[in-house]
Amino acid sequence: MSKVIFSNITKRFPGVAGATAVDKLNLTIEEGTLVTLLGPSGCGKTTTLRMLAGFETPSDGTITIGGRDVTNVPVNARNVGMVFQSYALFPHMTVRENVEYGVRLLNLPKAEMKDRVNTILETMALAHYADRSPSRLSGGQQQRVALARAVVTQPKVLLFDEPLSNLDAQLRERMRDELRAIQLRLGITSLYVTHDQSEAMAISDRVVVMRNGAIEQDDSPLNVYSRPGTGFVAEFMGKANILEGKVEAVDDTTVRVRIASTVAFTLARNDRAFKIGQDVRCVVRPEHIRVDVAGTMEAKVRRVVFQGAYVEYLTDLEGQECVFLDTDYYKSGVAEVGQTVKLAIDSRPVWILPENEANALGKAA
Amino acid sequence: MTLVSQATPSVRDRSSPALLRKIVVDPWLFGIFVLVTLSVLIFAALPIFVVMKQAVVTDHGFDLGVLIETLSQSFVWTSLGNTLLLGLVSAIVATAAGFLLAFSATRTTMPGKTFVHGVALLPIISPPFVMALAVVILFGRSGLITRELLGIRNANVYGFHSLVLIQSLAFTPIAYLNIRGMLQSIDTALEDASASLGASRWTTFSRVTLPLVTPAILSSTLLVFVKSVEDFGNPMLIGGNYNTLAVEAYSQMVGYFNLQAGALLASLMLVPSMTAFLIHRYWVSKRSYVTVTGKPSAQTIRISGGVVVPLALGCYAIVFAILLFYLTVVYVSFTKLPGVNNTLTLDHYATVFTAGFQTLTNSLLLAGIATPITAVAGMLIAYLLIRKAFPGSFLLRWATLLSFAAPGTILGIGYVSTFNAAPLLLTGTAFIVVAAMVVKNLQVGIEAGSNQLRQIDKSIEEASTILGASNTRTFFQVTLPLLKPALFTSLSYALTRSLTTLSAVIFLVSANWTLITVTILSQVETLKLGVAAAYCSILVFVVLAILAVMQLVLNSTSKR
Ligand SMILES: Nc1ncnc2c1ncn2[C@@H]1O[C@H](COP(=O)(O)OP(=O)(O)OP(=O)(O)O)[C@@H](O)[C@H]1O
Ligand SMILES: [Mg+2]
Hints:
Chain A folds into two domains: 4-234, 3-Layer(aba) Sandwich (Rossmann fold); 239-364, no CATH class. In chain A, 25% of the residues lie in helices and 34% in strands. In chain A, the strands form four sheets. Chain A has a six-stranded mixed beta sheet with strand order 6-7-8-3-9-10, sandwiched between helices. In chain A, strands 13-12-11-14-20 form a five-stranded antiparallel beta sheet. Chain A has a five-stranded antiparallel beta sheet with strand order 15-19-16-17-18, with no helix packed on it. Chain A is elongated, with a radius of gyration of 25 Å. In chain A, a hairpin with a 2-residue loop joins β17 (311-317) and β18. Chain A is built from ten helices and 20 strands. The relative contact order of chain A is 0.12. With 560 residues, chain B is mostly helical. Chain B has two domains: 21-57 and 346-560, MetI-like (MetI-like fold, Orthogonal Bundle); 74-129 and 172-290, MetI-like (MetI-like fold, Orthogonal Bundle), CATH 1.10.3720. In chain B, the strands form two sheets. Chain B has a two-stranded antiparallel ribbon. In chain B, α5 (74-107) runs antiparallel to α11 (201-230). Chain B starts with a helix and ends with a helix. The chains are: A alpha+beta (365), B mainly alpha (560). The A-B interface holds A 14-15, 53-55, 57, 72, 74-82, 84-86, 88-92, 101-102, 105-106, 133, 149, 153 and B 5, 11, 14-15, 18, 21, 24-26, 457, 459-460, 462-470, 478, 481-482, 484, 560. The complex binds adenosine-5'-triphosphate and magnesium ion (MG). Adenosine-5'-triphosphate binds at residues 13, 16, 21, 39, 41-47, 195 of chain A.
């Protein structure tokens, strides 16, 4: 049993007047799941993680692991594993010694200790490098040693602080999938910190978006992307147009929102309440807008950025900025600044931000 | 600095539960911290305060009259003036010489750099008064140069002029290393940039290089000044009538049994030393433009041609003087009666290895005990100060700084006065000598350890704790091995200093536990120059040999 619960966790650092790194945070990590903390720099991700590890003591609130209050339990008695951003491998020990280090402290019978170490070295494809110094391994191999060292003691919870940020883009994806595979196989409760939203979506059971020390949204990867609770989440998860509009019509299953004289969507209502004339903000992802000579929507081109695979346009839609991507530019040619283009929007993925609703998603978490 | 924020009461109030938790989480380490802090307070701070108290308090309590009486005697002010003047002149000369060596070695095509470097470091690893011995031999009444070569009958070698020469040569390496380190860490691209903007070599030197090394020049001047104030052996041997505070304090204590005057003089030594030290710590080191990373940046040699000649000649002259002095000592150690009977002999060595063997083994034994303690304690204190801010850290920080800045004389007198009664009856024991050696040399290890710790990724230690290790275990299994370079710096320094120190231990040696440096001093005073020279030669050789072995061990263990 190793469900993790943060209740009302607050962290203030002494000396920095008024600065609250983490503010009344409530978060549950279900047993065996991987939860990612995602957010801009300085939002309190690392601090939250380090409080679970025990490196920082909360100013207020409690943390439990598997029902046991660990708020005041010292780091070395918590039985959590951690993979550090810098890997933090002991440079004066071999790979095997690194992996053995934690197991030795468990006072297991010698045979079992050897067995565990060998098994994990095999699993991680490290057996071949066991007697090397970590400094003579590639980044990916070092990463695997760090992971092996963290899981070999069979910790209740596994923590990752931006573990992949030292790797190049390709290796990052491969290691990401490897990490996830091992986490799933061991079924180990995990907290993962990153500021890369695609990494977060790819690896997690749940994504927790943080902002200024508080949780902005706690949801499945699909939902934080396609049903963001706030404009901040929408923009943090990827390029987004947030277009202001007015509710024109509501019926049992749909709601109609007008964005501009040439643009209006009819969207599924999903049991949400809307009033006619209400101001709403809609999230429209650039990839859901396309150039279409038959389109009704008209926008004036302000800036054109050629990106190779596509052209990115910044347009003016009756006073609102609207960005979209054209991957078919080779067919119709690239529009010029000042020109008016005709566009079509796929309205199914358009999402109305729930910010003015009583039970806004972000707060419900 | 952290000290400031710790002193702010509001912060302390708010964070006190956290501080308390730090202790609870780590009772063992906190225990060690308390033990170390107490030891440092007792063996570093307490003796100094005892001396200062002695200076103003007599048997009848606080007595302003006695103080005024002592202060009204002229020898107090003469020796203070002498000390300051000598310190100032030596500091300037040694820094100039050190700069010349450092600049030539790092920036010019001067031939024979390795040789110059090696010789320039000799004075660091030998007792400071080897120079004094050589000067007596060369320029004394029956000096090899004054009498043999020049036929001068009554040359007066004793006094200010000789002291300046000796101290300058003896302390040049300090300035040399300091300035060299700074020159090496200045990115030469800056100088190249200046040249590319059309500046002449002189303009580049005076507008770019010189301003950048100014902090090192100032810091060398201050360090040499402190060293000169502290120096006891040279003024004792060769000062003649030119008495410095260290010598005057010693003769008041040992010659006239005037404890109060001795204590007062020793306390007076604190004033210039502490002033220089504090200026260095809080002013000069903050003015450094160069962040010393420990990694010398790539150096390009830019200065060649005609200018190198005078620079090189200057360097060679310094090196020649140092070499001449050392070779003289070695030569005399093999000579029957220098200046009178120059036949070669092994007699002096025979004396050392028979009658004088115990003092040699004593020195080696006590330094051998003190050295590892100094080094490990230095690393431990660095760890406690940098990584664990226990409540009360500032006591530890200040006590160690105080012990480093305080001259050996005050520490020695303080030990005699503090540890002469139960429960701390230690006078006459080996323990007290070892304690003095450790305390006096601790700070260098702390400094080296702290600098290295700041460069070690903190998460390496965190990785150890999260794997279940206690902080104590983490220190010994992870931190200490990673501190190996600093540990070796500290070991070498502690060993050399412990073997060659004089100013503090001269008050502490006893019939059972006498030290080689003290023996050398008395041999010179009784004009047994040959035996003294033999001791010196052996000492230099032993230090060199041990350092070489340590270097070998370091190299072979860091191959992995
Ligand atoms: N030891 C500390 N002392 C004082 N303030 C701190 C300390 N550690 C973190 N903070 C502050 O707490 C806030 C949150 O920091 P944290 O490291 O948790 O951010 P983060 O989300 O991990 O950012 P990043 O993505 O840059 O790693 C920041 O404002 C930071 O300045
Ligand atoms: Mg972080």
